[in-house]
Write a structure and sequence with these properties.
This protein is mainly alpha-helical and 722 residues long. The protein is built from 37 helices and no strands. The chain has helices at 2-14, 17-40, 46-64, 67-100, 119-129, 133-141, 151-163, 167-175, 185-201, 205-217, 222-239, 246-253, 257-274, 279-292, 296-309, 314-326, 330-340, 348-360, 364-377, 382-394, 398-409, 415-427, 433-446, 450-466, 473-480, 490-499, 503-516, 521-533, 537-549, 558-570, 574-604, 608-621, 626-637, 642-655, 660-676, 682-696, 701-709.
Length: 722
């Protein structure tokens, strides 16, 4: 019966000449659209192959079946193909954007499936999907006509800018949309969620909160946005000392921290009322709030309940670790905080507290690395800069320490940061006593104390020494009388005397200090400098050797070695001079390695700009490390700085002609350049580089795979962690 009904329907359809003609024209139109779709995708010979297969299938269909069957089947198939094409593209874009900002991006169904967009706009969308935002922006800038005023154009532009980490620019594009374009519910929600994502990327959690408030005011999916609003409020609790306006939201808008936390609980309770699937996360965040107000028993109970429901939620382990940290149980804290980083979702909080723990344990390498990872996620965590600065200062890496303190002071006016930077300026080479004096004066504005006043005397005396100022014994005694009774200040008193040319007084104070603390490396070094002035090079060398021996292996000052080399030259001791030179090179290598490891850690977090900065810092200590050049090139590649990446890889190859990893990455850079239009002749160079990598290392299967397929979508840059 059903078959007879279908036959009758087809007969009626085929008897209608107008319907048949319209169906035929529509089929041709759909076929043409598919050809155009594949043409603008720019996939070299692939479109021709697909078009040939499609055309062959259509011809076969028309040969094997009567026209009355073939024509409607062809039309339906072409429509289905177009529909699948649009859905797949949308799915790829959604997947990509989730990798950028998980759970923060929502994409609406496509407004159309490619019927009305221009070639430039479609290419821009494809570039965004394939992770090539700079090319996407080029295509978007070439768009013309009505599409420029459409929300989808601004959203696509914002997506490309967010891929580049330019959240401010993305926010500008979204904010340029007139209110009239945001009247539709779907468009308003999508734009507001993307604005929230931009504010999140800018660490502007106050405005991110306002975006969710606006969405909830219109009643759009309250179960999802009550949860997100509560989560943002928890984040504000975590960073209230680092983000402008966060403390005001807590204390002024809500009146107190307690009221703010109650509003968080209210949001999470409403979220649970809509969706019980988020129960584990809600319990975890509630437990975090109790930990913040030191209600540890209640907090741990909630965290335990959350852990039973979902044992893989990172936030639970973070706050268990924080509880252990506050209880000085560092081993358990390290275990819990470290475990939190194994699960989905990257937070700066565990890295920040791990940095604090490792600093207290005097494991400076680990402390610097964890602080770097925290800053890669949340650059406004200025206390991480201070931790790094303190570590570098203790490791006698003054240039790096100054850079860290300067970054911290760009966000806060902390007296300890000023004081510590002053020490680094003074001890650095060349001595910047004017900068040191300026910093200690800034520190004294908010925290005046005898130690700061004595240090101010040191820096001022250094400035006067440069001007040739001398002081007599009586004048020095009067200046130093408030501090002479404290043997712990012997080094500072000796330095001031040395600056004013009182060599014998300086030696007296240094020797007095060594009687009190015979293992003090700074006293040994300063005493050696004064002995050199008297021509006692042998004694000076002994004290410099003691300075080096009493310094921890990870805190040996390069200037100790330089002065010791000078002493050996004066004593014509070439053997010891050469040995000291080799030791100094080891110290430089150690400093470079610290920065390289920081770069590797932030690279794995996909914070490529920060990683590149650390690799460049490593190259300041050594200019002969092919591994650092290779890794810097990888970080540059993901910032689409292909030409500079090639320069660094060529530099690595010049250092080591058998460096297979660099050749592999060089091939990947050339392959990307050949497809992006920046250098069309680069494809041959890419193939040659891959062949060289395969010849040098048979086990480098990635190069062999790339050489076989030359697929730019399969590019994998490889850093050297050996």
């Amino acid at each position: 019966m059903d078959m007879q009904y279908c036959e009758a329907a087809l007969a009626q359809f085929n008897s209608n000449l107008g319907l048949n003609l319209a169906n035929f024209i529509l089929s041709l139109f759909c076929l043409a659209l598919i050809f155009v779709e594949w043409y603008v995708s720019g996939k070299s010979g692939v479109p021709a192959l697909k078009a040939a297969v499609l055309l062959g299938g259509i011809v076969t269909l028309f040969v094997c079946l009567p026209l009355r069957y073939a024509l409607p089947i062809t039309t339906a198939a072409l429509f289905a193909l177009l529909l699948c094409r649009g859905v797949v593209r949308y799915g790829k874009k959604a997947e990509l954007m989730e990798k950028i900002l998980p759970d923060e991006i929502e994409l609406p169904p496509p407004a159309d499936l490619g019927f009305t967009v221009s070639r430039e706009f479609r290419q821009a969308e494809d570039c965004v999907v394939e992770g090539r935002p700079r090319e996407a922006i080029t295509h978007l800038n070439n768009c013309r006509g009505r599409v420029l005023a459409e929300p989808r154009y601004a959203i696509c532009y914002a997506d490309a800018l967010m891929l580049l980490g330019n959240y401010k620019g993305a926010l500008g594009k979204l904010n340029d949309l007139p209110d009239g374009r945001l009247k539709k519910k779907r468009v308003f929600k999508n734009v507001m969620v993307k604005r929230a994502a931009c504010y999140h990327g800018l660490n502007d959690y106050v405005n991110e909160l306002a975006c969710y408030d606006a969405i909830l005011a219109r009643g759009y999916k309250p179960e999802k946005y009550f949860f997100r609003r509560g989560r943002v409020k928890v984040r504000i609790l975590e960073v209230r000392d680092c983000v402008p306006g966060a403390a005001e939201v807590v204390d002024q808008v809500f009146g107190s921290q307690e009221a703010f936390i109650q509003s968080i609980f209210a949001d999470f309770d409403k979220a649970l009322g809509y969706d019980r699937d988020c129960e584990a996360a809600v319990l975890s965040y509630k437990g975090a709030c109790h930990i913040h107000v030191q209600e540890y028993k209640t907090g741990l109970e909630l965290l335990a309940e959350s852990q039973k429901i979902n044992p893989y939620f990172a936030n639970t382990y973070i706050y268990i670790g924080l509880h252990c940290y506050h209880g000085k149980d560092f081993d358990r804290a390290i275990k819990a905080l470290g475990k939190s980083t194994d699960y989905e979702g990257i937070s700066d909080v565990p890295f920040y507290y791990l940095a604090k723990i490792y600093y207290e344990k005097k494991d400076y390498d680990q402390a610097i690395r964890c602080a770097s990872q925290a800053l890669a996620v949340f650059p406004q965590r200025w206390k991480c800069f201070r931790i790094q600065g303190d570590c570098y200062k203790n490791m006698v890496m003054y240039t790096d320490a100054i850079a860290c303190y300067t970054k911290a002071l760009s966000q806060t006016q902390d007296a300890d940061c000023y004081s510590s930077r002053a020490i680094c300026y003074y001890n650095g080479t060349p001595k910047a006593s004017a900068n040191a004096y300026r910093d200690i004066c800034e520190a004294m504005k908010s925290k005046d104390c005898p130690a700061y006043r004595l240090r101010a005397l040191i820096y001022r005396s250094e400035m006067e020494r440069k001007k040739g100022v001398k002081k007599g014994e009586a004048e020095l005694d009067e200046m130093l009388s408030p501090y002479k009774g404290n043997k712990q200040d012997s080094n500072e008193l000796g330095v001031i005397c040395a600056h004013y040319g009182a060599v014998e007084h300086a030696i007296f104070y240094y020797e007095r200090g060594l009687e009190h603390d015979p293992t003090n490396s700074t006293l040994h070094y300063n005493l050696a400098l004064e002995l050199k002035k008297l021509g006692e090079f042998s004694s000076a060398a002994e004290h410099l050797q003691a300075a080096i021996a009493n310094s921890p292996p990870n805190a040996r000052d390069i200037k100790y070695y330089k002065e010791l080399i000078d002493c050996y030259r004066e004593l014509n001791d070439s053997d010891n001079e050469m040995n000291t030179l080799l030791q100094m090179e080891e110290v430089n290598h150690f400093c470079a390695e610290i920065n390289r490891k920081n770069g590797d850690a932030t690279y794995h977090l996909k914070k490529y700009r920060a990683a590149a900065a650390y690799y460049r810092a490593a190259l300041r200590y050594t200019d002969s490390s092919p591994a650092v050049c290779n890794n810097l090139a990888c970080a540059l590649y993901y910032q689409e700085e292909y030409k500079e990446a090639v320069q660094q890889l060529n530099r690595a190859v010049r250092m080591n002609k058998n460096y297979a990893l660099a050749y592999h990455n060089l091939g990947s850079c050339y392959l990307r350049m050949s497809t992006s239009g920046s250098e069309r002749t680069a494809a041959d160079k890419a193939a040659e580089s891959y062949r060289t990598a395969c010849a040098l290392d048979k086990g480098l299967t990635a190069s062999a795979r790339m050489l076989a397929h030359m697929d730019p979508q399969d590019i994998q840059m490889m850093i050297d962690e050996g």
